[in-house]
Structure formats: C-alpha cells, structure tokens
Amino acid sequence: MRLNNFLTEERIKIPLENISKEKIIEEMVNLIDDSVKLSNKPQVLKAVLEREAVMSTGVGEEVAIPHAKAEGVDDIIAALGITREPVDFKSLDEKPVRLVWLLVGPQDKTGPHLKALSRISRLMHKREFRERLIRTGGPREMIEAINSEEEKFFET
Prior knowledge:
This protein is an alpha/beta fold. The protein has a single domain (3-155), classed as Mannitol-specific EII, Chain A (3-Layer(aba) Sandwich), CATH 3.40.930. It is 46% helix and 21% strand. Strands 1, 2, 3, 4, 5 and 6 form a 6-stranded mixed sheet that branches.
C-alpha cells in the first residue's frame, strides 16, 4: 500500500482556508467530495467529527490525522492540507497543527484503514520531512515528496 493509492493532487490543498479544527475537517471532507462525489457527504463529515470528539486526532509534531469509517465510502480516500498558520487541534503534545491528513474508508475495511493510518504516522515522524511538506509549492511537488520519502523509508 502506497499513499498515492488513495491521495491525489486534487485532494491536496495549500493553504487551507479555515482556522478552526471543525471547519478544517469540513473543508477537507469537501475537498474529497469535490474529487470523488461522496454519496453520503453529511454522514462522512458526521463520522469524522464524532471520531474527533472521542479523542483528538492531533497526533503531535504539528500533525493531525482526522479519520473515520463511513457507509457509502467504497475505498480508502485521503486528503492533505497545510494550514496558513498553526491551528489548535487539541493535540496530544498540546502544540498547534500545520499538516492535516484526512482519511476516510469503508466500514468493512478496518485492516487497510489502520495500515494507512500507520503509514501516514510513520512518515510524519521525521521532522525534516514534515518541514519539507510545509515548504512545498503545490500539490504536485507534495506528491513527489511523499513518493520519494516512501521509497526511502519503506525500502529498508
């Protein structure tokens, strides 16, 4: 599984327009909907916000990975955005967020969903890589950076 299997240039936004956690999540669900035309966009948004209410998906180190499984989603889909300014996401390390990944998947694909979350988390552990993503000029450059990092990181 590679991130480019479920993340495309159309689902990358630099910078995100919103400045609150809930509005950023809504903006990113809209980004996915613009790309794949979700049959149940309100339910997807509700699922992600309900998951966020259980525990913040601000995983630390300026990264948040809001995620959920929802009815009507056929496969794993991701979006990625960079905030204009640091945003309070109630992160585990209490630091604001700049990189926001959104991951949604079908309710019957728990294994692939968890594998995708793990892959994102592992890549986001590297400070130099996070900084490189924040400095990228656009979606194509970001996809190229992610592909390059996956080749290096998961080759060994």
